Amino acid sequence: MANIRTISFDGVIVGGGGAGMRAALQLAQSGYKTAVISKVFPTRSHTVSAQGGITCAIASADPQDQWQWHMYDTVKGSDYIGDQEAIEYMCQVGPEAVYELDHMGMPFSRTEEGRIYQRPFGGQSKNFGEGGQAARTCAAADRTGHALLHTLYQGNLKNNTVFFNEWYATDLVKNEDGAVVGVIAICIETGEVVYVKSKATVFATGGAGRIYASTTNAHINTGDGVGMALRAGFPVQDIEMWQFHPTGIAGAGVLVTEGCRGEGGYLVNKDGERFMERYAPNAKDLAGRDVVARSMTLEILEGRGCGPNGDHVYLKLDHLGEEVLESRLPGICELSRTFAHADPVKEPVPVVPTCHYMMGGIPTNVNGQALTVDADGNDVVIPGLFACGEVACVSVHGANRLGGNSLLDLVVFGRSAGLYIEKSLREGIEMRDASEADIDRAMSRLNKINSTTGGESVSALRTELQTIMQNHFGVFRRGDFMQEGIKKLAELRVRIENAHLEDKSNAYNTARIEALELHNLFEVAEATAIAAEARTESRGAHAREDFTDRDDDNWLCHSMYFPSEKRVGKRAVNFTPKTREAFAPKIRTY
Amino acid sequence: MLKVSLYRYNPETDQEPYMQEVELDTGGKDLMVLDVLELLKGSDPSLAYRRSCREGVCGSDGMNINGKNGLACITPISEALKNGKGGNKLVLRPLPGLPVIRDLVIDMSLFYKQYEKIKPFLQNDTPAPAIERLQSPEEREKLDGLYECILCACCSTACPSFWWNPDRFIGPSGLLQAYRFLADSRDTATEERLSDLDDPFSVFRCHGIQNCVNVCPKGLNPTKAIGHIRNMLLSRAT
Lengths: 590, 238
Description:
The complex is a heterodimer of chains A (590) and B (238). In chain A, the strands form six sheets. In chain A, strands 1, 2, 6, 7, 8, 9, 16 and 17 form an eight-stranded mixed β-sheet that branches. In chain A, strands 11-14-13-12 form a four-stranded antiparallel β-sheet. Chain A has a three-stranded antiparallel β-sheet with strand order 3-5-4. Chain A starts with a strand and ends in an 18-residue tail after the last strand. Chain A has 16 helices and 22 strands. Chain A is globular and about 65 Å long. In chain A, helix 1 runs parallel beside helix 11 and helix 9 (322-328) crosses helix 10 (330-340). Chain A has 590 residues and is α/β, with parallel strands linked by helices. With 238 residues, chain B is of the alpha+beta class. Chains A and B meet through helix 3, helix 4, helix 10, helix 13 and helix 15 of A and helix 4 of B.
């Protein structure tokens, strides 16, 4: 029987990155008792690594710019399975959310007029694709994520948000009505386990890029929210859609921003050819990320890669000059010197497509309410559960996210989830109860891992998982390869469930946390694999060698992965924006 | 084979901390210190340290590397050995001056408390405009070298004044942030901020030793920022 302390809040947010802290800020500002549970001190969350900027039509670089143009680009970028109502909301509300960040003190770079500096990014256009390249990404040099995350943490300090720093949420507590009534969390420093009870539970746990061997993602990006949701029996949407960022530093995985190409950098193959001119004659190096990543992979596969093994291409920046590089891209210069041993002022940076972003996740509406679907295919709200940021699939990114849209996604939808919960609390939502049995059920995984006496090592199993995903579910995918990968994963599941936690101590036991994280990585990986095999077409980031075309007749829809039956279903894409007619699917070229 | 000397302490099983001597096959590569730790943790999962971004921007893995504070993820073995203390051996200890929780993990509560003390958020008592508050590139440039702080604590835990008065001297990191807000053209709370700092300990315990400047992994200069605050306090007094 559960014998643990219960702590109660109006709202509990799991995850202290940009989305979580924006949601928390909204609630704390209105005086509601708000807690953030973060497995790292909040400013160490992965938002801190975002570089290039936050895309938003604030009309600073171009006074004519309109949020509708941004909406068009985002819909096109998503390869038409982004929900247009959600994209409309994000692009329209975006400027307000960005100005709030400035008012909170975010140190944006500036134009001569004193406004926020904007730079060009991939997939951006003026006048619905007709007016050439736009410059719509608001930047704080190339440290925009750092500036944003610290600003949000500071805003929360000002508003007395309660932080459970270095606490780790292990599982959702679901009561007999199927409502989410909080989480079980463990204090990493002391090992104490508590039930954090809440009227609203917000998942803002970020991505899961660590399912791949080569990733730009931090060690902490282990898909904890998706893992918890799947274990609780809730579905995830479009989870096969993984973005491979064109410019990860070869060998190290560390990201160099698309802003490099926005500022005028370009990619070359071993012959020194600017090869993107062949693949995307108009946008060239600023085509969608999926397009650029595939083009690079083809160059490498066809023998035009650089280096002794021909396994990467070069990002050329030296022609921009030291002054531009040091003022606009200082962080990139630092990273390149440290991790690529290449000084961008003098030599090109070796880069390769690297796993970067999870477009799929927990399906939500624009209020951040988590959704499932009933037997007739109707959306059903999961009572008590919310999601925002990378863990959520609202869905504004569809099959391919545009650069700079993730930071906008997390402030806009962190904010909207906060606003909705605030309103619900004001109208008076009841605290729902959990029974002893509900709590025991949520604690069973933790109890099991604490009582292991044998089994394989967590780090070896994690490496095996990452290798399977890298080899079978990468930039290009093929049915038979994926089926083989799914078989390997099925065999791996049992071994991971029985992994050995040798160290059972309580004080700052990171071995326990990594063992629990491995379960989550596995859940995300398996869902990705099964959904990827099921989607028999190529769309956005999902490129199949055996189904090379987009198939709008059968797949202009979201995939829904249901964990209990390991089944992939479909859910309609929203084509009903509120203020204008929808953008109809077209052939997508750049 | 790389020789590594590791500070180990588990409060539940160890009477006192000790240095553990281990060897690691690096395959001849000049790995980052964090990669060394990850490899060691693969065979001994009980080894505790913090890490997140592994690219020097989150500030998790500050530690004392061959006698010098730095970030494990952006310090290559070769550079660590150049620090001088330890010969050909990599010597890893927790950041000095704050209590150790376990192995390389320190209790940073006092460090964060000093950060919170300087009210690290923008204060402006005029109504916000419908767009951003305008700021010229020159005004914005004043924040360069200040806002980039990653709160890794390498500087404050290298500071003898902070070791001596961690509860009363704000320390280089907190003061760098204090100046970040004093220097921001959008902030209107300069007078209150200076009043809060105007005592013998908060700022004036800095003796210009510059250990902070020496160790900052982001190349920032807290001593310079402290100098600016000192001048503001002194000119305010006259």
